[in-house]
Amino acid sequence: MYLSFKLFKFLFCTLLLINSTLCYDPSQRRLHNSVIIEDRLLIFSGYGYADTLTYSFDLFYLDLSKSFGNDNLTWTLIPKGSVPIYTYDSTAVLSLDNSTIFLIGGFMRNKNTLDYDYSNLVYSYNYPASTWSTPVLSGDVVPPRQGMRGVIDNSGIIYMFGGTNITNLTTFEGTIHNDMNTFNTVSNTWSTLNIPGNLPSICYEYTVNILPNGIIVYIGGVESAKFTLVNMNQIKLFDTHKLEWSRMNTIGDEIDPRIYFSSVLTPDGNIIIFGGCTKNRSSVSPKLAILDTNKNPFEWSIPSNSEANSPPSVWGHTANLYYDYMIITFGFEIDTKSYSPSSQVHLYNIKSNEWVTTFSAPDNKSTTPSTDDPIITSSHEGRPLKALEIVLWIGLGATFLVSCILITKIIVRRIRQRPSIILEISGSDQKL
Ligand SMILES: *[C@@H]1O[C@H](CO)[C@@H](O)[C@H](O)[C@H]1NC(C)=O
Ligand SMILES: *[C@@H]1O[C@H](CO)[C@@H](O)[C@H](O)[C@H]1NC(C)=O
Ligand SMILES: *[C@@H]1O[C@H](CO)[C@@H](O)[C@H](O)[C@H]1NC(C)=O
Ligand SMILES: *[C@@H]1O[C@H](CO)[C@@H](O)[C@H](O)[C@H]1NC(C)=O
Ligand SMILES: *[C@@H]1O[C@H](CO)[C@@H](O)[C@H](O)[C@H]1NC(C)=O
Ligand SMILES: *[C@@H]1O[C@H](CO)[C@@H](O)[C@H](O)[C@H]1NC(C)=O
């Protein structure tokens, strides 16, 4: 069914003479990055998979200014936005003015040699210019880190807690940290904070959200070299004003501990977590839960209809909030042991608290296309076609259709012989 949809899309896109950057078919992936700028959901990096594990450097987006069904997506490639490094399990944070994405850490490989490359640990993408660069940072030395997530406060400082420093890339041995690193995106300064007391345990593969009052909330993850998972009732809080740690025991429903899950913060103060897995990559329950941060202590609850029509159990996906929708992209499905199809996202409506299949674009906002937008070429808009032109176009269309069918046949025949770069056969994420 997936293949036939791909075929349909291929024919559809080719027949409509659509620019090849539209209808882009990205490779499947996990532990990628997703950022929303204006009305685009941008996706990049991650542990990629096509027919085999594959390196991907593509930057592509889903247009959120138009409505769509969740299982027949049209992605658009930004050709100039090709990522200068291959990385997964990294963090990507948007600047306050929505102009720049900072891509930090992860398992990094050189784009040309494909060898591990930790020579630059911070990359930045200028969205209006569509250019990547390596910012020159002052201050403390930037440590190599994987499995940490960053969050930006309202003065432009990105906070990154803990994570791993994998030093043997064969055995995935290394150290786990509990330090707090900050990156001031205004002054381009890196600092490793010296916090005197009350430090939390070492931790990685948690989720992070910052509340409007400047308190950062850390949930879940791994908290020891023996792979002990963090109790979901024990929340770590970091006060960005006082630069102090504290802990909170939450109340409410029982939530399985987990790693490789996602979280979003809603405008009314709920943190919605979704998905993830255990150490042995088995599924967790419930899939979706809500932490109400308006209560003191915070309270977990499981929305009554959040299991109905819910997506498969997935880990290594991402979640972004856009108006009423939590949008889940990519990841690895536990039951089928396969990557989530790239033609599909999952949509959770945070107002009605239910999984939905249609994304309705917010209709009261302006949709001015940027200059970078690929254009659908059609020279006949707004004027009637002359008879001769119509005959010519029908002829051209018919020839085109026949070519497409032939090309499709060839592609279908070759689909299993497609050469691709082998990444790691196994075990690459079985770290520590
Ligand atoms: C794709 O989704 C749109 C909007 O929901 C729908 O109109 C269209 O029929 C779908 N196409 C396919 C091939 O499923
Ligand atoms: C950045 O984007 C967010 C979310 O869309 C918006 O609320 C905010 O006003 C934007 N900031 C600027 C400076 O454009
Ligand atoms: C990473 O780990 C290695 C070995 O434990 C250590 O020598 C190095 O200082 C660590 N680097 C950082 C930035 O933590
Ligand atoms: C990584 O570990 C393996 C197995 O213990 C060892 O053979 C190899 O030398 C180590 N590599 C490094 C860079 O320490
Ligand atoms: C995976 O771990 C869970 C507990 O975390 C256990 O219940 C389950 O049986 C394990 N599954 C496998 C296949 O080992
Ligand atoms: C549409 O406008 C209403 C009223 O101004 C506002 O409350 C709502 O958030 C807007 N919705 C979107 C999607 O922009």
From TrEMBL:
InterPro entries: Kelch-typ_b-propeller (IPR015915). Residues 1-23 form the signal peptide. The keyword Thylakoid does not apply. Keywords: Kelch repeat, Membrane, Repeat, Signal, Transmembrane, Transmembrane helix. It holds the Pfam family Kelch_KLHDC2_KLHL20_DRC7. SUPFAM superfamilies: Kelch motif. The chain crosses the membrane at residues 390-412. This is Galactose oxidase. It comes from Diversispora epigaea.
